[in-house]
Amino acid sequence: MFFCCGVESVVILGFGRWAWKRCTYIGANDSANWTFATPEEFEPIPRMCRLVLAVYESDLHNPQFIPQHGYRLNPDRVIKRVNYEQTQGRAPPYIIYIDHDHKDIVLAIRGLNLYKESDYKTLLDNRLGMQMFDGGFVHHGLLKSAVWLLNEEGETLKRLWEENGKVYDMVFAGHSLGSGVAALLTVIVVNHRDKLGGIPREKIRCYVMAPARCMSLNLAVKYADVIHSIILQDDFLPRTATPLEDIFKSIFWLLALLVVFGLLERYLHSRRCGRFPPEVRTAIPVDGRFEHIVLSCNATSDHGIIWIERESQKALEKMKEISSETITTPPDVQKFERMQTIEQEHRDALERAVSLNIPHAVATPDAEPCMDNDAEPCMDNGTVPCQSEGEQASKTKSTSSGGKTNWDEVVKKLFKKGESGHLVLNKDETALKNISVVQPS
């Protein structure tokens, strides 16, 4: 009897300790050891948020959903606006905007529309391990959207870049569901820069706000120098460690936990319902990265693009104010030295991924696009052969001779079906025969 009482006491104390730690966990814990971002690094973020918000407007000359700080853009520089009727559900709506002040060509994609069935179909078009790409796993539905979007707008982006002297940066931005499309679109473009006029890798950037996990860890680290993820404090979606097809289950359990722990959380962290002056930290995390959903009344509001834009603008103004106060003294880290620091962080992250035995992780990023000139069997939707090698070769030849780039063919050329039945990157097939691969979770 005494022993049973002792065991029960230990269990109760253990559960109480777990509940206390779980309820007192805050989003800032994840980035507590990260370095502070500089104003130069963070300056594009509010601007990209406003461009994504602009996608929601039908007429920027007469906007209906003006953000707190205004759009601060020239409506006449919107090159193209595409709505749901024009995409026919193949991708979220987007705009193409040319920013002459910052020398950017921006393709901005809106987030999930709760009233559109097509967005749910894109989100749910995936299974764990279904789509392999560039040596890792990506979300099948989002990859299809990215390929469709490049088929539609690849020539437009190439033309704009060439017309502006090949000096502008190519920027992709998205929020929530659109962030996944933008991220995978960026991965494809980085690997096939010749299809956009030979644009250098350093001129390609991607900003994804409140991103979902749409690619395996080795790809996230590999392209960390190009793809920048922006996460506002307690946002639940980037912290959802399950595949995207289980997002809705995660939302259900999140709401259930918020109800169960709501009263206790109110007393422990009622301060988190307010807004503190924001601070911006940056890093390339490999392990221990946003693995815990935060029990907070801001868990869902922090996902909104309006709040992200508002807090990022506030953070930028605060950073500039602090920077102007210390202008008489040299900065702790010079700009050139900071660029070298970021490059070193990327190399360290790549090496860390290799040391953790992450499948297909490499110690250095690819310097050249991974193109294979040999014609390979086409895969319809990434699953079954759809044409012969001769047909693929002739079609590829006609495409490269000055016609419009077919991004479906470009992507499908990357794949061969491996011995396990998975679609494997052509250049990785030989290596896969010599090593034991643990599939990423």
UniProtKB/TrEMBL annotation:
Keywords assigned by UniProt, alphabetized: Hydrolase
Region annotation (Disordered) ranges: 381-405
The keyword Hydrolase belongs to this UniProt entry's keyword annotation: yes
UniProt cross-references to SUPFAM superfamilies, sorted A to Z: alpha/beta-Hydrolases
Cited InterPro entries: AB_hydrolase_fold (IPR029058), Fungal_lipase-type (IPR002921), Mono/diacylglycerol_lipase_N (IPR005592)
GO biological process: lipid catabolic process
Biased composition regions of type Low complexity, renumbered to the chain: 395-405
Composition bias type Polar residues, residue spans: 384-393
Domain Fungal lipase-type: 106-242
Pfam families, per database record: Lipase3_N, Lipase_3
Mono-/di-acylglycerol lipase N-terminal domain ranges (all copies): 7-71
GO molecular function terms attached to this record: hydrolase activity
Protein name from the UniProt record: Calmodulin-binding heat-shock protein
The species this protein was found in: Populus deltoides
